[in-house]
Amino acid sequence: MKDLTARLALEEVLAALWRAKRVGDIGRLAHLGASEVQRWARARGHRVLASHARALLTDCPYGSREEFLFAIDALIAEVEHAHVQLVSNMQNSAPFAAPGPLVSTASDLRLKLA
């Protein structure tokens, strides 16, 4: 996966996660966390992130909705960290390249979606 393609794919997953979290769509959060995050992480070789995404469903059942949301929040934080690392690596590897998409960090993306 090329870095720009990986970045855009990860930003799409993050945006979908934030949107599902905001509206309280538990089913969508489960799908995105277990499927889409895991797919991206595998493609990028992030074994730990992939295993955490897989554990989202294999650690079922959760004792409560709050427990599941806590697990989702932890996964989102981990995906946000992967995004920051990816953007940082892209900026450090191509200092003279043309600027990428307008969104450079997870927080910038969240602001644009609000």
Explain what the structure shows.
This protein is an all-alpha fold and about 110 residues long. It has one domain (about 5-114). It has five helices and no strands. α2 packs parallel to α4 (about 65-95).
Q: What characteristics describe this protein?
A:
mainly alpha, 114 residues, 78% helix, 5 helices
Question: What's this entry about, in short?
Answer:
By secondary structure, the protein is mostly helical. 78% of the residues lie in helices and 0% in strands. It has five helices and no strands.
Please give the structural blueprint.
Elements: H1 3-23, H2 26-44, H3 47-58, H4 65-93, H5 106-113
DSSP E strands, number: 0
The class by helix and strand makeup works out as mainly alpha
Uncertain runs are none
Tell me the span between the first and last alpha carbons: 29 Å
Approximately how much beta-strand content do the residues carry?
A: under 5%
Order of helices and strands: HHHHH
Shape: globular
The domain count comes to 1
